[in-house]
């Protein structure tokens, strides 16, 4: 069910209403939303999908949580920007929902609290008509906190929970009974609250809005939560609806090129992230696809083009909400210039950030040795990146470059799972040749090579000190820095605001 579209030029805002948790209450909220909008067109989708599962729908069960989350995911696919959740019980896990969606969710309980503050600024004693499940989770205590407010709940009526029975009972409001016993139970619950000194009564079940007229006039105000929520939805923008929580910064990783190198990159991301607990670490999306055609084979004219596969992986990361892409494969960067123009998010260029790192760390250096695949060397991408920073690239002579390839791709090479023996001997021989040619800084320019030779300062032939630099680590640090910068910017932009 949809309302009219927004006028041309208006901000693109589409509401998604979770209606199936209480079908009658959801329909009531939708009607009041349309009436509150008046002649202003709004774009809204009412999703009336009943909650199904073994657990009673009056509980904040795992089934309920997953049901609501699935609806929010469906809203994401349908272009919704703002979620309307007319269910108090579902607000007991609102933080869990917000942590896993980029959509704004308008806070129902916050709307009711702010209405009470505005309409009755001197009120302190608030009576709450909530279900047992909502009371157990102390939802209203979170919002109507002392010392500003003092809450009270109704006593039992003849040994039963009158509010829960009135709504969820066999002949309750959810079953369409809008008069008779459910209304009488609620009247007695209201009387109990008034006896306890309630100055205003707030329903904690949206179904109660359906029987406000039947309850008749009371000595104290009784809030219509659906009316209040409808006005709140129309009053706030989607940023305000989200409660000021910034969307998590996601790093997209094109993995599988190769698999062990991807794991090494992820380990270094974790290692360089300042974190005191699990939740402080970065949010990642990893597209682990070892079936991407070999980059080197194509560059030396012996294999299929991996461009489409690399691009497809990047697009999946982009569509998954990544804010930047990291490709922990040096050779794959020969294809980045083809891919980047078609993406709306940046690829962190491993070679460029490494060359800049070298200039900052080794300002006096001129010649940089490069241990890399023949495809990387043939493409010239490292030569160009280093030249942009004023460096000259040194590479092993052909015979030793063949040994580098054997160390990476050979039967006893690192891609086959070996990190000792012949593969290490081959790499060390090529390294010695670069040192003999004058290199004092050497790039481990294939992401598998740090598995053979850890980065750092080592003693080369004749005791010469040589610095081995790991581009994988440089890339990891650059990604962490980008995520940290984005988080700081979001924190600075988020100004404390008092809700409507």
UniProtKB/TrEMBL annotation:
The keyword Repressor does not apply. Keywords: Isomerase. Its EC number is 5.1.1.13. It is an enzyme of class 5 (isomerase). One of its GO terms (molecular function) is aspartate racemase activity. It holds the Pfam family Asp_Glu_race. The keyword Isomerase applies. Belongs to the aspartate/glutamate racemases family. NCBIfam families: asp_race (TIGR00035). This is Aspartate racemase family protein.
């Amino acid at each position: 069910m949809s309302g009219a579209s927004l006028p041309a030029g208006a901000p693109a805002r589409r509401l998604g209403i979770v209606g199936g948790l209480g079908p009658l209450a959801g329909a009531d909220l939708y009607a009041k939303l349309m009436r509150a909008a008046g002649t202003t067109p709004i774009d809204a989708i009412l999703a009336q999908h009943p909650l199904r599962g073994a657990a009673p729908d009056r509980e904040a069960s795992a089934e309920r949580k997953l049901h609501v989350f699935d609806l929010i995911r469906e809203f994401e696919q349908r272009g919704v920007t703002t979620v309307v959740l007319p269910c108090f019980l579902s607000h007991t896990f609102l933080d869990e929902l917000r942590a896993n969606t980029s959509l704004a969710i308008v806070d129902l309980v916050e709307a009711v609290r702010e209405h009470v503050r505005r309409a009755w600024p001197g009120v302190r004693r608030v009576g709450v008509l909530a279900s047992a499940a909502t009371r157990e989770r102390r939802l209203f205590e979170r919002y109507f906190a002392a010392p500003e407010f003092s809450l009270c709940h109704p006593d039992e009526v003849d040994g039963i929970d009158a509010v829960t029975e009135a709504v969820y009972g066999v002949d309750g409001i959810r079953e369409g009974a809008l008069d008779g016993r459910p209304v009488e139970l609620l009247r007695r619950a209201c009387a109990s609250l008034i006896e306890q000194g309630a100055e205003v009564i707030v329903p904690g079940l949206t179904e109660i809005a359906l029987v406000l007229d039947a309850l008749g006039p009371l000595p104290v105000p009784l809030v219509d939560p659906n009316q209040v929520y409808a006005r709140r939805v129309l009053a706030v923008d989607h940023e305000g609806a989200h409660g000021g929580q910034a969307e998590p910064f996601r790093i997209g990783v094109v993995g599988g090129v190769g698999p062990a190198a991807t794991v090494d990159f992820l380990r270094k991301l974790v290692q360089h992230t300042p974190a005191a607990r699990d939740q402080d670490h970065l949010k990642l999306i990893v597209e682990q696809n070892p079936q991407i055609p070999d980059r080197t084979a194509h560059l030396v004219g012996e294999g299929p083009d991996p461009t489409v596969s690399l691009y497809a992986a990047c697009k999946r990361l982009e569509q998954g909400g990544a804010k930047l892409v990291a490709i922990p494969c040096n050779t794959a960067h020969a294809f980045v210039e083809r891919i980047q123009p078609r993406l709306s998010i940046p690829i962190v260029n491993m070679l460029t950030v490494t060359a800049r790192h070298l200039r900052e760390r080794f300002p006096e250096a001129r010649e940089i040795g490069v241990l890399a695949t023949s495809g990387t060397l043939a493409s010239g991408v490292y030569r160009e990146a280093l030249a942009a920073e004023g460096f000259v690239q040194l590479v092993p002579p052909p015979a030793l470059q063949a040994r580098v390839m054997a160390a990476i791709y050979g039967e006893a090479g690192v891609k086959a799972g070996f990190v000792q023996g012949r593969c290490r001997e081959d790499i060390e021989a090529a390294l010695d040749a670069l040192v003999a040619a004058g290199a004092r800084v050497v790039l481990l320019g294939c992401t598998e090579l740090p598995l053979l030779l850890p980065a750092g300062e080592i003693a080369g032939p004749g005791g010469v000190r040589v610095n081995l630099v790991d581009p994988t680590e440089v890339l990891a640090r650059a990604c962490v820095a980008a995520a940290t910068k984005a988080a700081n910017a979001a924190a600075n932009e988020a100004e404390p605001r008092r809700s409507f």
